[in-house]
Structure formats: C-alpha cells, structure tokens
Amino acid sequence: MKIYFDHLSGFGKISDYELIVNCAYGILEPSEDPSDALSTGWVPWKGRWYNERSTRIDLKDYRPSKTTKRLSNKVTIKHTTFGNYDEMYRAYCEYNGFKRDIYDFSDCSVIEYYTDRLVGVSIYKIVGGEFVAYQFITDYSDPKLSLGSVAQMFECQYAASIGCKYVYLMAGYEGCCRYKANYYGFEFWTGFEWSRNVELYNKLIDRDESYDIRAIKQD
Asked: Which of 6, 30, 38, 185 could disulfide-link to 61, CB 3.0 to 4.6 Å?
C-alpha cells in the first residue's frame, strides 16, 4: 500500500502551538489483498483506504438476542442494488442530528427491510471476501421494531452464509458509535491490535465527546 498525505485540504498552526491537520490515505497495489488491509484497521472509501478506529464483529462469536430474533419475524428482506433512498436518509439524519450530505453509494449492494412498506436499508460491499457495512438507514417510523439490531442480525447471517469471517462496521468515534460494543463478537482497532476491551472503547468514546472541534478555526 502506498501512503499519501494531502496537504492541500488540511491546515496547520505552528506559532503559538503546533497543530497540523492533513488527510492521510492509502492506495492498494494491484497485488495486495484487501482483506489484509481490513485486518489492520484500514477502511475502503471511494477508491482510497483510511486507517481509523475501525470496528467489526467476529462472526464466530456473534449471536442475536432473543428479542432481536422475535422482532426479526416482523420483517422481510430483499437483496438488491442501490436505489433512491434520499427521503429516508434525510429523515435518518434529522432524527439523529447528523449534519451529512447524502452520499453516493451507487456502487454498493443493499438489503432492504420491509413490514407493510420499506422501513430501512443496509448498504454494504463485499471487500476481500469480507462484509463491509457502509450505512444503515431507517426513518424510525416504528421505533419499537429496533430495526438497527434486526438489520445487524440479517447482515451477520448473510455474511456468514457467503463465507465471511467478519462484518466490518466502519469507524467507532463519538457517542453515535457506542452501540456497536453491545454486539457479541465486537472488536475495535487500537492502531496496534484488535481489542474486545469494551470499557476502554467506551472511555475513548467519552474522550471523543469531550472534544469540541468547533473551537478549532481555520484562518
């Protein structure tokens, strides 16, 4: 993997204190196995790889709760290609208070979840023989359905059925990612190894929440 540092999109301060922010990313060589990159904390995004506090579920240890199994009986699923989920995505971001644009996931596969209508989607790719879960979307019209946990169960079941060892859940930062540690088989990348220390993970989440990046102003 070749590593690049983008000094055009970043910024820095070196007079009163030293703070340098730039975007570091990797590009896989054609001969490299993507699963090796995933296993060392790298996450694929739009043709580039980024190393972060990656999270994953070890499928040999995953098991859904009895409640999740029961609620899953209320849902039917459909495997399909990416469609138009803009309205649902806006509702999802509004509900969570996320300030995000609607990403282009047109090259991803999708699991759609239905009750009497479409209520949610899982957007994913199979990368290096592993399941990479890019985005779950729901409009929260039926909170009692706990669709996030139900969708996670279906993702894990499908991934296991096609021979994956892990479901990668992208980054684990801020309070919005705390829930990931609730799943059996949860692990996070420390930068050196995969850890199952949930107490440490939650401390890191608390630290994320304590920082206010709005206090950093770019001139």
From this structure: 185
